[in-house]
Design goal:
Layout lengths: L2 E5 L3 H12 L3 E5 L7 H9 L4 E2 L7 E2 L7 H6 L2 H10 L4 E3 L4 E4 L4 H14 L3 E3 L8 H6 L2 E4 L14 H8 L4 E7 L3 E4 L10 E10 L2 E12 L3 E3 L1 H15 L4 E6 L6 H13 L6 H6 L4 H10 L13 H12 L1 E8 L7 E6 L17 E3 L7 E2 L4 H17 L3
Parallel strand pairs: 1-2, 1-8, 2-7, 8-17
Antiparallel strand pairs: 3-6, 4-18, 5-6, 9-16, 10-13, 10-15, 11-12, 11-14, 12-13, 14-15
The structure holds flavin-adenine dinucleotide.
Length: about 400
Amino acid sequence: MKKVAIIGAGASGLLCAIECAKVSCSVDIYEQNSKCAKKILVSGNGRCNITNISLNQEDYFSENPSFVKYALENFSFKGFEKFCSTIGLVLEVKDDGKVYPLSNEAKSVASLLINHAENLGVNFHTETKITDITKPLNEYDCVVVATGSEAASHLGGNRDGQEFALTYGHNIIPTYPSLVQLQLNSNLHTKMSGAKIDGEVTLLINKRAVSKCQGDILFTNYGVSGFAILDISGLASESLMNYQAVDISINLLPKYTAQKLSAHIMSMAQNGQTVNLLDILHGLLPIKIAKTILEKLELSHTINASQINTKLSKKIANQILNWRFEVSDTHGFRHAEVSGGGIDTLEINPKTMESLKQKNLYFCGEVLDVVGRRGGFNFAWAWASGHSAAKDITKT
Ligand SMILES: Cc1cc2nc3c(=O)[nH]c(=O)nc-3n(C[C@H](O)[C@H](O)[C@H](O)COP(=O)(O)OP(=O)(O)OC[C@H]3O[C@@H](n4cnc5c(N)ncnc54)[C@H](O)[C@@H]3O)c2cc1C
């Protein structure tokens, strides 16, 4: 009977443990935390966006983009759904392709994985942090490193897996926080803290627009958050790491053109019903944002509607549709959902996840230089890479 050690009882480690134990391997899984699967439990705001129905290379970022292809094709949504049905987990596919457990609870994902692994005889060693990778490699036939990334240190995020890889001479692609909030170099965002809009954000690297996303934008004390911000954050974070100038332009009202917005402001000013400029802006935007726009343009709240002319309405419209902020930093690994960079996948077999530098040593999940878009792609990678490793370990 093959003896397998898995380091890390997160998404990829648990799936790999189940697949190995199914084919009568003896599996020990080591977890530093007292509780397993902490990231699964908090994922998707407690609902767990468990995968996506359509998984493509283009949904991932890596120095070696084609690395993910084989594993994702071999454990596509259909394969994963079948796996879930064997552990009794029913999935629900949403219109946008995101997949959630039908229970709508991340808890059901974590407990079904853990219970199923235990029923198959997997030995759980919680509160056991592996510090030296050479020991398990001497004691077991195969060792799987599924220790995740540095993201969310309060849930167990660390760089242990990279340290293990360094022991065997692996190259590490520099890591950066991704799916993370951004800090702004401005004294105005704090005044809008708590205000949320459905807007559009454009990311500028060295003053050139490189990416655009629509969705929630939330102003906070440190900067900005919300889905639109998370979606551009990976590229922003990687550029900051490379000392590039990073700015964002926020369009607070993407449904308007500059002409239409300026005409709206003029018509409100002329209809005799609206008293002042702040009222006109508050008819379009949350009050904190409306007030801060006036402060930015050094305009008084009490400017009377009759004082608003075309030049002023255009100036205000341009500010609303293109508000530039310098990004000073990300909100850091502590608050990030995932990490970009990691173990260089050029030194990993894409079909098996085995190290090309050390036989019987496998790496799977986020510890590798693979990071996905928001939408279930990061779990999809954890499942697919854990599956590939297990398939190779259990082959006869
Ligand atoms: C707040 C939040 C929300 C998220 N929501 C989603 C979502 O909805 N959809 C999605 O696709 N992705 C989501 N993610 C990302 C997703 O959780 C990760 O991509 C995924 O968990 C990675 O799986 P993994 O198995 O590689 O690592 P992990 O799940 O992080 O598991 C690694 C495990 O290894 C343990 N460990 C580390 N070092 C050691 C050691 N030396 N010895 C023993 N144990 C060790 C850790 O404690 C941890 O339990 C979210 C992440 C966060 C933080």
